[in-house]
Amino acid sequence: MPVIKRLPEITGDYVDAGALYLEKFIGAESYAKLYKAVETGEVDPDSEPSSRRSSWSSAASSSFSSSSSVVNKVWAVKILRKPKSYEEDPAIYEREFAMHSRVSSHPNVVSLHGHFVERGYFFLVMDFQAMGTLVHAIRSGVYQRNSALIKRTFGQLTDAVLFCHKQGVYHRNIKPSHVLVDYWGCNPCLTDFGLATTEDINEQLGFGTAAYMTPESFDLGAGPGSYSAARSDYWAMGVTLFNMITRQAVWYSARPVEDVRYGIFLRHRKRYLRDRFPISFPFARLCSRFFTLEPAERPSLLEFNEQVQKLDDLYIDEIDVHTAGPGCSQTGLVERSRTHRGSPALPCASRGVDGAASAGCSSVYLGQAQV
Ligand SMILES: Nc1ncnc2c1ncn2[C@@H]1O[C@H](COP(=O)(O)OP(=O)(O)O)[C@@H](O)[C@H]1O
Ligand SMILES: [Mg+2]
Question: Top-level EC class, please (predicted)?
Fold first, then answer.
């Protein structure tokens, strides 16, 4: 059973000894619930004190006294179930906080301010991003045929991911629903470090979201294996860029046997991409090298981004459109995803649950591919 089903609905409650009012539920995926919270500026002295209160709040640091300057300040509060063994080894369960706070100073990582434990739940307090995720921005069409905007946003996100790696933090679950953007689709901020690790080389397979995982990181039941978490992040960034340009998922999962699309890609490379998606030939060439089966042959994220930034256009132009396949036309994107032909539509994660259908999503593929 997904953990969120076992998390309470606490909209309208006060938490952290009354310092935060949970005004609105904003999203949930598999492990947590996110709330928009308003800082009340005071703490109820009679309420059960929360343990491990950290210094996110200016009210908290002013000896719990009322402070009018902080009233109405808005935060995002993430609630996770506190595991039973928390008291025995809290460090394990503070991992998400530890990883996220290590990289939270970067302008393209969501700023994390503190955490506390209350009523048997673990809470993280971070900056609230009102405009939603990259999924919403992609579906709104803000990037459509705007190569300059896509390159800029992708470049900023690359900067954040490489910064995380420099700090020894590998995200392992990069995808559009873990990137928050502003109204114009700019200034991306990476979030959800729930699967992050400090180890580049990992032997525990199967971490991440299928559509964004490298072939070597799947657990195919074939015994022990290992993969690079850094390379997993590179790959997920490539898929995310593909989503931004095409509004579609390139495949459901990069397993040549399980997903026929990836199998066809491996056999036909550029042709597969050029015939099905409205991308420029140079970008198709770059992707054909980037999504290769052999990890050592793939360009690094730094190289990939440098190449992307050099491309004049990420979209197919008027001349090339006549030599490419039917899937590359600009107009057919949404229609094709509805009729099952061609490529999977970008999975909707507007309600957060990976792959779950929600209002407004037109694709029947939602239950399979994941953002
Ligand atoms: N700081 C934030 N501001 C606004 N919305 C957020 C913020 N962080 C997360 N969200 C929303 O909540 C959803 C779930 O958050 P996430 O951290 O991915 O939880 P989970 O650990 O359950 O996957 C995200 O997809 C996004 O829509
Ligand atoms: Mg998540």
Answer: transferase
Q: Quick one: tokens of 31?
A: 């492990």
Angle ∠(166,169,171) on CA atoms, nearest 5: 120
User: What is the band of 222 on the pLDDT scale with cuts at 50, 70, 90?
Assistant: confident
CA distance linking residue 122 with residue 94, whole number of Å: 9
Tell me the residue ranges of DSSP E strands in the chain: 14-15, 20-28, 32-39, 74-81, 112-118, 121-127, 179-180, 189-190, 201-202, 227-228
pLDDT by residue (tens digit) across 79-129?
987 666 655 566 656 889 999 999 999 999 999 999 888 888 889 999 999
pTM metric for this prediction? 0.85
Any atom of ligand 1 within 6 Å of the Cβ of 99: no
Range among 6-20, 33-47, 119-133, 158-172 with highest mean pLDDT value: 158-172
126 CB within 6 A, ligand 1? yes
Q: Which residues contact 163 (CB under 8 A, 6 or more apart)?
A: 103, 106, 108, 109
Calpha distance 75→368 (Å, rounded): 33
Domain ranges of the chain: 3-127, 132-368
Q: Is 32 helix (H, G, I), strand (E, B) or coil?
A: strand
Establish whether residue 191 lines the binding site of ligand 1, counting it when its CB lies within 6 angstroms of any ligand atom: yes
Domain spanning 3-127: which CATH class is it, in words? alpha beta
Alpha helices in 35-146 (DSSP H): 58-61, 90-93, 95-103, 134-140
User: Looking at the predicted structure, is the pLDDT value of residue 357 above 80?
Assistant: no
**What kind of fold does domain 132-368 have according to CATH?**
Transferase(Phosphotransferase); domain 1 (1.10.510)
Read off the tokens for 321.
């459109």
Phi, psi of 338 (to 5 degrees): -75, -30
> What are 228's strand-pairing partners?
201
Q: Calculate how far, in angstroms, residue 192's C-alpha sits from the geometric centre of ligand 1.
A: 7
